[in-house]
Amino acid sequence: MDKKLPFVTAEQLRELCEQFATPFHLYDERGIRENARLVRKAFAWNPGFKEYFAVKATPNPSIMDILREEGCGMDCSSLTELMLCERQGITGPDIMFSSNDTPAEDFALAAKLGATINLDDITHIDFLERTIGYIPETISCRFNPGGYFEISNTIMDSPGDAKYGMTKPQMFQAYRILMEKGAKEFGIHAFLASNTTTDDYYPTLAMQLFRLAVELHEETGAHIGFINLSGGVGIPYRPDGHHPDILAIGEGVRKVYEQILVPAGMGDVKIFTEMGRFMLGPYGCLVTKCLHQKHIHKEYIGVDACACNLMRPAMYGAYHHITVAGKEDAPCDHLYDVTGGLCENNDKFAVDRWLPAICPGDILVIHDTGAHGHAMGYNYNGKLRSAEVLLCEDGSHRLIRRAETPRDYFATLDFLPFMKPLLGEYNDD
Questions:
Q1: Using alpha carbons only, what angle is made at residue 106 by residues 82 and 111, rounded to the nearest 5 degrees?
Q2: Number of helical (H) and strand (E) elements in the chain, helices listed first
Q3: What is the DSSP pairing of strand 50-54 with strand 270-273?
Q4: Contact at 8 Å (CB) between 203 and 246?
Q5: The CA-based dihedral angle spanning residues 375, 197, 335, 307, taken in that order and rounded to the nearest 10 degrees
Q6: How many CB atoms neighbour CB 295 within 10 A?
Q7: Is residue 21 in some structural domain?
Q8: Strand, helix or coil at 75?
Q9: CA–CA distance from 233 to each of 157, 159, 229, 273 (Å)?
Q10: What is the pLDDT of residue 195?
Q11: C-alpha 210: how far from its chain's center?
Q12: How many C-beta neighbours within 10 Å does residue 396 have?
């Protein structure tokens, strides 16, 4: 198996662990910026291109600021994500709001901020109008073709089982209704597969959406202003996995664009993307320490992180590579399960994983947690969410989210009289 190394050295990790209690999530500013620039280069052929970072992947304002500086907009899916944008001065067409089963207050704030609203269902047209009193002149609709999504006869996912989007007939009906209500510029949005590492995903998806755009324009007269390819471009979690070539992906989309849209007189359509995993995944890691060794029917390494800090291995059986700091070149001759402390047997970061010999106090780096890592944290067993730290371009570091404390955990009980003494007496320091 190919070697996969962290973006941080063992020496740097030791220094960080002296300042910040483990576990914590660490992000690489340099890697984030370089990747954002590469994405922009891949789609530079389209003058209106914009990446809308999927805030749900890593909802941290410091990370959002970095991406905004690199020209990215923000893809929001909830009230609180919109609130984050509002506090940072991100408004108007720099926000794409894509939600499902959407509460009225979410639509209200999206409209207030001037976000581009992406409707998930045809019934949401009337709901949106009742909520905000009008239909925005620029609006988008989410498409679900049903069935299976295939690339080269390989099934990538099953949109027909997904709760998102409208059928093709509903798309035509929605456009006509929206035009009657004053909409002037339309977008098409679709998310048909997750974490694809093939370079063909976006071009294949684009072909479907571009053909739909031509049909919608010709049959309804609607002006299609943009087509949002959404997310779905993945990363190789395993060392020997294929890393998508974003330059080749962008070129593939360009070819389909020129084959379908340009001949139809639609060469002004803007291309949008909404990536989270590809933008951030490899540029974050979970730093944790070995607490205990356990020798029973198997060999266990117990660390101070758990599934509350990184849910994916427990929830999906997902692979995340592990490096033992300072032992990068040591032989991987010990077979371990790497576990957290939850009262759940699936609380394991690795099962039957060959690793170097690990001792209590060793620092472990769990790779590729930059997206859908800290964001998916929770508080089962009363566990507290960890801190987030940014490794800056100049080699320095700074705290970008403090770790939770017991006071945070009990905060929603502060209205109960018998809890007030505990909260009042507890000292975060």
A1: 75
A2: 13, 19
A3: parallel
A4: no
A5: 10
A6: 7
A7: no
A8: strand
A9: 13, 16, 10, 10
A10: 87
A11: 25
A12: 9
For residue 335, what is the enclosing H or E element?
Answer: strand 334-339
Domain that holds residue 315: 282-413
Give dist(CA 49, CA 272) in Å, integer: 6
What CATH number is associated with residue 348? Answer: 2.40.37.10
Q: Is 384 exposed, middle or buried (0-12, 13-18, 19+ CB in 10 A)?
A: middle
CA-closest candidate to residue 357, choices 329, 393, 333: 333
pLDDT band (50, 70, 90) for residue 125: very high
> Where does residue 134 rank: exposed (0-12), middle (13-18), buried (19+ CB within 10 A)?
exposed
CB-based contacts of 107-111 (< 8 A; 24+ apart in sequence): 107/131, 107/132, 108/132, 109/79, 109/82, 109/83, 110/76, 110/82, 111/136
Beta bridge partners, 63, equal none
326 and 251, same domain (yes or no): no
Instruction: Report residue 1's pLDDT band, with 50, 70 and 90 as the boundaries.
Output: very low
Token pair for 330: 């040591």
DSSP string, 349-401: EEEEEEE----TT-EEEE---TTTTGGG---GGG--PPEEEEE-TTS-EEEEE
Going by C-beta distance under 8 Å and a sequence separation of 6 or more, which residues neighbour residue 71?
36, 40, 50, 51
| Encoded amino acid at 316, one letter | Y
Name the one residue in this structure whose structure tokens are 């069935």.
147
**In the numeric block, which tokens belong to residue 247?**
């330059």
Q: Is there a contact between 283 and 370 (Cβ–Cβ < 8 Å)?
A: yes
The residue from 280, 295, 322 where one domain ends is 280
Paired with 53 in beta bridges are 74
Residues 339 and 359 sit within 8 Å (Cβ to Cβ): no
**Mean pLDDT over each residue of the chain, to the nearest integer:** 94
What is the rounded distance in angstroms from the CA atom of residue 387 to the CA atom of residue 30?
Answer: 20
Using CA atoms, how far residue 43 sits from 24, 249, 371, in Å, is: 34, 9, 22
At 246-282, the pLDDT tens digits run 999 999 999 999 999 999 999 999 999 999 999 999 9
Whether 386 and 258 share a structural domain:
no
